Each structure stands twice: as structure tokens, then as C-alpha cells.
DNA sequence: GTGAAAGCGCTAACAG
DNA sequence: CTGTTAGCGCTTTCAC
């Protein structure tokens, strides 16, 4: 069978340069000295033929594919492109490419994605899911492929973990509100406090406690992790006898919804109601008033993850690590 | 050398099932009939061993990698994740994965990305760049790898092209403004009318002409393709003696900047100044007033591209195609 | 500093 | 319907 494009192979380069394929290989990979003169002839031959090493063949032989798998819920969620960029900007220069798979947060798809990564013989996997199914990672671990989990609590499986300081960030948010004189501070959460949201609630509670503000009635409402959810949360809160004077939302989209509801109800932000978000997605600067929020450094998370993966791939051992990326308060107009 | 994880190979499956590796291969790929009984034994063996075919080996042998390359400026630009999703949603079920490379619009990186795709023996390439360098694609074409260009004008190289109807969209936008009574309609463009922007300007001019509105003085301003650029464009326009009553911007971020400037200057939108964008990024619904814009269907573009690629890979020949994806007017509040 | 030969895991002739 | 054999393009012993 005629193979695609009939590209030059290493043997042709060797022939043209008057050396063996072995020497060409070593000239290219630097695993063994090659004389300057030989190297020059090889490079000339490569240029003349337009030779490009076949990464697939190399991968098969070497047991490495120079590929890492990134398993995420949805690249369309603005957090992940930034994270992916961070990963790539570290891994790219090291010669790795990424295969990105979207799971929509569906467990079966997550499992299938991991299976695929094993089949593809990836050299590492970055796995970002809310619902942590530790055992779903087992096949990857068995295949001895380094895995880094993104987000979530410390893993039981002993895999590396990179996540932002959700609890600390929420604490800082609430401190900021308290500092600005707000006292009845609500938290608008998703249906359940799952994933990062759980830690954000924890930070919220901790900050209230440390300020001597006891838990207040009905100040944590559960809705959806969406714009409509945020709006709905505010609706719910202001129907109560004791209204909040500030709301912290589990993410920015919810906070934007909160802003919608406030405007709808004629509430001035931040005078009648302060609103804070979490994540600092680009949209936070698009709304009016601009959103005060906690930056969730997606890019740094991606980069830290990539570095960890590189270390593992290169056999820099050590016990499983947990890397916590600090968040950062971003003051704008809404609180 | 001990290979990673010592995963079961096809031979082990064959042995356990009491058949040859060939038969296992065929049972898996369905290229040749396998008796029901044999197939059952093979499947049992696969399940027992947890066997997963090695895609890299398969790729080397078959000359296909089941991978396609997506070369884009920046996954962080909100247009591309949606496009990538569209590509994946078509290609994924067909067994393909994507490698995404960001070029930042830098020509050397574009070339390097294409080289890499050839090295990786991808089965197809989707190439999205503003600055069309037809000859940069030549190595890929020589390697007989199907390429689909995304965006830009009809290619001279004879490669497939998928793009949205930028000219028609702009025409529709201007018609909408005219229909709503606006007559002094400006266009805020980037530094040069490059890429899609060129066609958007053309559509703008065409619509004015067809409405019998001759070209007006200083109604096309050049700034940056950014939020600040849009704001700057409005500033420039309203300093003129004859102000526009509407502006069409080359993209949504610019339109959002235009909204900023209007607010700053106390101009009511759309009463004093109508504002329209282009692309319908998510942010368009985030601003106040919400942006009336032209939806640039990234997802459809990605899906059409993927289908075209599949056709080419499967040898469904035919001459190079140009697929134009229609845009759609999205009426909201700003015009 | 260089080569010959073996083989990564799989699929596709060819042969029955 | 099934098996044997060769080989995809490369890297890596082992030998010189």
C-alpha cells in the first residue's frame, strides 16, 4: 500500500548523507555523539529532502507519544480555554501536544475519555471533573500514566492535585465585604455545594465566624450554577423579612444574574446590595457595574499542572503533591 | 525495556481466546467476518485482560493516526472554543481526536504548527488564520493530508474553505438599521480591513448603496479590533460635525467598547446612537443594553469543516469546495 | 564515532 | 472463516 504522501523516511536521509539510519537518529535526538562533519551532512540531507521525523513511529518504538490528554467538562466554559492555554504554554516547548476531550460532566464519557487516553498511549493526563470518581482513574494509574487532578478535594488515590484556594478566596471575599461595612452577607450556591463550591461555602462561613458574625438564617440559598440561578437566588433572598445587604455568588455567571435581578428590582449596586462573584471571567468587566470578584487563576493552574506532569513523566518522583494556587481579590464596582 | 504499565497486547488476547492475533484484529475492526463463537471468546478475553488496542501502533501500521489537527490563533478567543466543539462533536463519534495548536497569529508559529501536524501524521488539518499564506499550506498538501481552511477568501491553492457569510451578514445588519430609521450609519473597523473585516465592510457599503444612501464622509473609521478600539471609534465619530446615528462594529468586543463610550458621553442607546456588533459572542447578552448583533455560527462552521474533512479522508473526492455558513440577525436592545 | 539487526503493537497480503 | 508472515518508521541494544 502506498502510504500517505510518500514522505521521506529516515533511511533516505541516511542514504543521502552516506551514513546509517542509526546515526541520523542520534544526530536528531542527541543521545550519542555525532561528529560535526557527519551532523552537517545529515542536516543538509534533511533540508534537501524536507524530512520530518514520524512522531507516530517514534512513539511506538519509544513507548512515548509526546501527547498528553486533557479531560474537561466543556471547552466552551470560559474557564477551560485559559487553563488549556496554560497547559500548552508549558508543555508545548517541551515537545508535547494535547488532546482535549469534553465530557459534559457525564461520568460515562469521563470513563470513555480516560480509556481513549490509555489507548492513545498518552504520556500524561490532566483530569478536571467535578464529580470525583477516584476509581475511574484506576485504569490510568494501572497503565502507569501520570495523572494530575484539577480541582476537588485532596484525593484518596494518591494522585497529584492542583486546585485554586477556593476556601481562602471566599474568605477573602467576605472579609472585603465586612471591611466595607456589609453585615448581612448571603451566599448563592448551586443545587448542592459540590466541587469547588463546597469549599467556597466553607470559606464564607469561616470569614463570618472570624468576624464574630454568627450564622444568620436563610443566608445560604441553593439554585443553579448559572446566570438565571443567580437572579433567582437574589429574588429568593429579597423576599425574606431580613434582606441581605450583600451577596457572594459561587461563580461570576451567577453574580451577573444577581446583578440582573438587582437591576430588575430597582436595587442600586453596591449601595442597596453589594454583589461579588468568583472566577473573574472576562465577562466580569463587561457588566455594569463591573463585578468585584475573586480571580481564579486558570492559567496558573494549567501551568502548574503541566509542570507537575513533566516532572512525573521525567521520573522526578516524590510523594503525590497537592498544589494550591492562590486566588486574588479583584475590586471593581459591584462591592 | 519495560514498557509503560505493561498493558496487554493483542497477542495475549489471541492466546487467551485460542485464536491468532489476526482474528482478534478483525474481530475488533470488522474488516473480515469472524464467527460468532470466536468473537465471543475474543470479547471475553478482552474483558478479562482489560485489553485496549494501542492506537499508536495501529496508526503506524495503517498510516492513519485517527487524529486531526486544529490550528487556530488562540483558544482563549471566545470564537474558537465553540468552533472546536463543533469540530469535535462531528469527528469524535467517527473516532477522531483533535490536537489544537495556538499560533497567536504569528506566521512562524503557524508554519511550525503545520510541520508538527505532518510529523504527527494527522489525518486532516483545519487551519484558521487571518493572514492567508497559501504556500505555507503546501507542505501539508504535499503530504497528501486533507486541509480545510477556516475563514478568509476563496483560496487560490484549491483547498476546501469554510467560512461564514461576512458580507451578507454586514448587509443584513445595515438593512436592519435602515429599516429602523437610521440613516447616518458608521462602520468601526480594525487598523486595516483584514480577514473577515474586509468582507464586512463590503457588505456595509453594499447595503448603503442598495438603499440609495451614497457614501458619506468619514463614516468608516479605523481603530483596533478590541473593546478600547470600539470606544475610541465612537469618540472619533462623535467629534465630527455630522455625527452618525448608528454604528456597526466589526466585532462584538468593539461594539461593547462603543457602548462604553456612548455611556461615558451620555448618549442613549439606541435612541441617540444605535450600536451593532458582529459575532454574537456570549458577552453580547451581558452588557446593558444587550447587543443587537449578527450571529457568526462558530459551531456550524466547525461542524461543516469536520464533515468536509471526513469526506476527504474517506476519499469522497470532488473538486475543492467553498462552504458558506449563513449568519443570522440577533435583535436585542442596542439597535 | 558509527553500523547491523531486532522489535515496539498492530494490520494486511497471501494462503488455506 | 482463520492463520502465517512481513513490515509500518523509528530507536536501541550490541558490536566494532
From TrEMBL, chains A, B:
Pfam families: LacI, Peripla_BP_3. InterPro entries: HTH_LacI (IPR000843), LacI/GalR-like_sensor (IPR046335), Lambda_DNA-bd_dom_sf (IPR010982), Peripla_BP_I (IPR028082). Keywords: DNA-binding, Repressor, Transcription, Transcription regulation. The keyword Cell division does not apply. One of its GO terms (molecular function) is transcription cis-regulatory region binding. Residues 8-62 form the HTH lacI-type domain. The keyword Transcription regulation applies. This is LacI family transcriptional regulator. It comes from Asanoa ferruginea.
